[in-house]
Predict the 3D structure of the following.
Amino acid sequence: MAGFAQGKHAYGISDRSGFRYRLRDMRFEWNGSLVGKDEYEPKHPQLEPKRVRADAQTIRNARPDTATETTGFVVYTNSGDGIIGKLLESFEVTASVGTVTVTTS
C-alpha cells in the first residue's frame, strides 16, 4: 500500500508565491492555503468577532407586587371649568386589549 511522500525529498509549491518549499516546513493558513513558513499569516482577530451574549429580558419566577395593588391614585383633568389641574372626584375605567374607555360621573 502506497503512502504519502516523506523525508527530505518531499516538496510542495506555495499557493501564494509559487515557490518550492520542503513539505515539512509548509503551513496551512486559516483560508486553506498551503504556504511557506516565511509567508504564513495568522487570521486577524477582527475576522472572528467575539460572541455577544443577549441582554437579560425577563426575571425568573416574577410575581406581582401585592403591597401596592389596592392603593388608590389621583387623576387630574382640565375638563369642566377649564382649569388645568382640577381634581377629578370619581371615575370608572373599563379596559380591554387595544381599547380603553373612561367614564366620568
The chain is about 0% helix and 25% strand.
